From TrEMBL:
<dbReference type="GO" id="GO:0016787">
    <property type="term" value="F:hydrolase activity"/>
</dbReference>
<dbReference type="InterPro" id="IPR000073">
    <property type="entry name" value="AB_hydrolase_1"/>
</dbReference>
<protein>
    <recommendedName>
        <fullName>Serine aminopeptidase S33 domain-containing protein</fullName>
    </recommendedName>
</protein>
<dbReference type="InterPro" id="IPR051044">
    <property type="entry name" value="MAG_DAG_Lipase"/>
</dbReference>
<dbReference type="InterPro" id="IPR022742">
    <property type="entry name" value="Hydrolase_4"/>
</dbReference>
<feature type="domain" description="Serine aminopeptidase S33">
    <location>
        <begin position="80"/>
        <end position="322"/>
    </location>
</feature>
<dbReference type="Pfam" id="PF12146">
    <property type="entry name" value="Hydrolase_4"/>
</dbReference>
<dbReference type="InterPro" id="IPR029058">
    <property type="entry name" value="AB_hydrolase_fold"/>
</dbReference>
Length: 341
């Protein structure tokens, strides 16, 4: 993790761009711009999704904290979308790689899809992979998607949160701050608890918690290979390396502490979740704990809730599974959204 990646057929100039220190946003933006055509041409089912008849827009805009945030939208070119789907990405990730294919599939099914990179992730400003306060990201997400929903073209439409992994935890916290603002939420392998296989031993965790107060930005937390744990299909696991602006170093101490605190907080508030829910989780997920998705389903006060558990599936349900599983998960998501519009 964090070592320079070598790609076949990449010239020396492009390799130099990819090998740059990605701590700050400039090198991440240069890497994405230089590499995006290669990314979108890999042999992965997500990049075979049709994009004819879609209007795609990218933008950079300063938020109320003065940070330049990258966002992107995918809309059906003709007619009004059925509803808005607002994406919350996972830890270390960006909305510019695998999610491109996910968004195209949803938009081709009639939905207006909106996504953003959080501060410190992807193409947004901020120290790479650093979360000083998880609630700040929650506020950033609420601010951004509130503007989307206030657009006169969309104001009357249903709106759904779509959270993946850490983004699932973020979507739940958005809902808890805005209990009546959303039509429903789709949660893929939500990070309501980090799996025991990923969390360091208790004693190490206690030492790291103490160190985080002194050195929050240090990259010191031991971590297993997340691609190995998250992707069941071996070819797709290798393709994860093409996500060149994903944060791949050891987690920063302050970030790890915030994620731990967030999951502990969410575990205590499951019964306060009240919106319509679709929860999807792989039974063999070694990154986020599927048993806590079961607890969310059982404890949430929502009267409209559904839990889909997939035999043998790992963490990355839409990126790392065999094609037939990916298509099944898409069908389950789109059917549920269609029923709730």
């Amino acid at each position: 993790m964090g070592k320079p990646l070598k790609f076949e057929g990449v010239n020396e100039e492009l390799q130099k761009i990819l090998d740059a220190d990605m701590d700050h946003v400039g090198p991440r933006r240069r890497a994405r711009e230089a590499f995006k055509d290669i990314q979108l041409s890999i042999d992965h089912i997500l990049f075979k999704m049709p994009n004819d008849g879609l209007k795609m827009t990218e933008s950079y805009e300063k938020n109320s904290r003065g940070l330049e945030i990258f966002s992107k939208s995918w809309l059906p070119e003709s007619g009004s979308p059925k509803a808005l789907v607002c994406f919350c990405h996972g830890y270390g990730d960006t909305c510019t790689f695998f999610f491109e294919g996910i968004a195209r599939k949803l938009a081709s099914s009639g939905y207006g899809v909106f996504a953003m990179d959080y501060p410190g992730f992807g193409l947004s400003e901020g120290l790479h992979g650093f979360i000083p306060k998880f609630d700040r990201i929650v506020d950033d997400v609420i601010e951004h998607y509130s503007k989307v929903k206030e657009n006169p073209d969309f104001r009357a439409l249903p709106s759904f949160l779509f959270g993946q992994s850490m983004g699932g935890a973020l979507a739940l916290k958005v809902h808890l701050k805005q209990p009546d603002a959303w039509t429903g939420a789709v949660l893929l392998a939500p990070m309501c608890k980090i799996a025991d296989d990923v969390v360091p031993p208790w004693l190490v965790t206690q030492i790291l918690i103490g160190m985080a107060k002194l050195f929050p930005k240090r990259k010191l937390v031991p971590q297993k290979d997340l691609a190995e744990l998250a992707f069941r299909d071996s070819k797709k696991r290798e393709q994860a390396a093409y996500n060149v602006i994903c944060y791949k170093d050891k987690p920063r101490l302050g970030t790890a502490l915030e994620l731990l605190k967030t999951t502990q907080e969410i575990e205590q508030k499951l019964e306060k979740v009240s919106l319509p829910l679709l929860i999807l989780h792989g039974k063999d997920d070694k990154v986020t704990d599927p048993s806590v998705s079961k607890a969310l389903y059982e404890k949430a006060s929502s009267t409209d809730k559904k839990l889909n558990l997939y035999d043998g599936a790992y963490h990355s349900l839409l990126e790392g599974e065999p094609d037939e599983t990916i298509l099944r998960v898409f069908d389950d998501i789109i059917s549920w959204l269609d029923e709730h519009c």
